[in-house]
From TrEMBL:
Species for this entry: Sphingobium indicum BiD32
One annotated GO molecular function: oxidoreductase activity, acting on the CH-CH group of donors, NAD or NADP as acceptor
Keywords: Oxidoreductase
Gene3D superfamilies: Medium-chain alcohol dehydrogenases, catalytic domain, NAD(P)-binding Rossmann-like Domain
Protein name in UniProt: Oxidoreductase YncB
UniProt xrefs under SUPFAM superfamilies: GroES-like (SSF50129), NAD(P)-binding Rossmann-fold domains (SSF51735)
PANTHER family xrefs: PROSTAGLANDIN REDUCTASE, PROSTAGLANDIN REDUCTASE 1
Family matches, as InterPro entries: ADH-like_C, ADH_N_2, ER, GroES-like_sf, MDR_fam, NAD(P)-bd_dom_sf
A Pfam family hit: ADH_zinc_N
Alphabetized SMART domains for the sequence: PKS_ER (SM00829)
Chain ranges of the Enoyl reductase (ER) domain: 16-334
Length: 343
């Protein structure tokens, strides 16, 4: 059997380009005792991977070597097993890479045995019912300590985490405000997702004033997916004892060595704000709760799971480039073949 993989051909400068990636083919070896062979169905395309493509070691994830597999969260079906915890036909989800097949040993690799609900499309397990949705849920509920009546602002509100998070806030009885980068995205979050207000930061000559107009009583919870000048504009608009949930730094991923200088950090002291970063997989005790709540909302139609779907492993680099260029809405996923169900 031949395994097709996407590897790093060269390090990107700014937004990645197709020449940074290469499609290679390698034979699959036989399984050893304790291992499973997964045929991957869906890749999650995540912006955090961009930082791993630089030659640096100051991220929470290791840098990818030249010629190394591009890492990503995958969902796939077990086609061979020499491990009693997984049988053929089970679904596994784990942080693996852009490849058609993965050989893994669950004893030394974090791979979930996922119960796939036939009423839910497979792509949802990489997005709203996957770690994007779980990240939004954990960040708001535990890190942001969100309560009904709070004003919650979500940056990148049309993105993978933000599109779920802004709806969770609304469904939890909060005033939900999204920050987006186009009039199209503003219409999406207020119209399709039904949140209370949207701010198009590209169309706002004074972002600070636009935030004040949308949140006149201050912001109780700011869920930050981007950092940069949006974080800087948010800091003076936090309510007393507000909470900033630091999830991502999209504004810096393409210019890691020249980040935007934050000028309003003193507002953390002025308003006694708590600002905390987190990684959702460090809160596994909330996993069952998050999956049950998100799954219920999705199946009832209360939560709209927005997806941007590309088909074929050879098209994974283009999907990633579009994501890093700000051209996508919702969760960007790559399905390996046309038979994979989508939302």
């Amino acid at each position: 059997m031949i395994n097709r993989q996407i590897v790093l051909a060269s390090r990107p400068h700014g937004v990645p380009v197709p020449e940074n990636f290469a499609l290679v083919e390698n034979p699959l070896r036989a399984l050893e005792e304790g291992e499973i062979l997964i045929q991957n169905d869906v890749f999650a395309i995540d912006p955090a991977v961009r930082g791993m493509l630089d030659a640096n070691d100051d991220s929470y994830l290791p840098a990818v070597a030249i010629g190394g597999l591009i890492p990503t969260m995958v969902l796939g079906r077990v086609v061979q097993s020499r491990n009693p915890a997984f049988k053929e036909g089970d679904y596994g989800r784990g942080f693996v890479g852009w490849e058609e097949y993965s050989i893994l040993n669950p004893a030394n690799f974090a791979i979930e045995n996922v119960h796939v609900d036939p009423a839910v499309p497979l792509t949802a397990y990489m997005g709203a019912l996957g770690w994007s949705g779980i990240t939004a849920y954990v960040g708001l509920k535990r890190i942001g300590e969100m309560q009904a009546g709070d004003t919650v602002v979500m940056s990148a509100a049309a993105g993978a985490v933000g599109s779920v998070g802004c709806q969770i806030a609304k469904l939890s009885g909060c005033r939900s405000v999204g920050i987006v980068g186009s009039t199209h995205k503003a219409a999406l979050v207020t119209g399709t997702f039904g949140i209370d207000a949207a701010i198009d930061y590209r169309a706002a000559p004074d972002l600070d004033a636009a935030i004040k107009a949308a949140c006149p009583d201050g912001v109780g919870v700011y869920f930050d997916n981007v950092g940069g000048h949006i974080l800087d504009a948010m800091l003076p608009n936090m309510a007393a004892f507000g909470r900033i949930v630091t999830c991502g730094m999209m504004a810096n991923y393409n210019n890691h060595n020249d980040p935007y200088p934050i000028r309003n950090l003193w507002q953390i002291l002025v308003n006694r704000v708590t600002m905390r970063g987190f990684l959702a997989y460090e809160h596994l005790d909330m996993l069952a709760e998050a999956e049950a709540q998100l799954g219920g909302w999705i199946k009832s139609g209360a939560l709209i799971a927005q997806e941007n779907v590309t088909t074929g492993i050879e098209n994974a680099p283009a999907a990633f480039i579009n994501l890093m260029s700000g051209k996508t809405t919702g969760k960007t996923v790559v399905r390996l073949n046309e038979g994979v169900t989508t939302l």
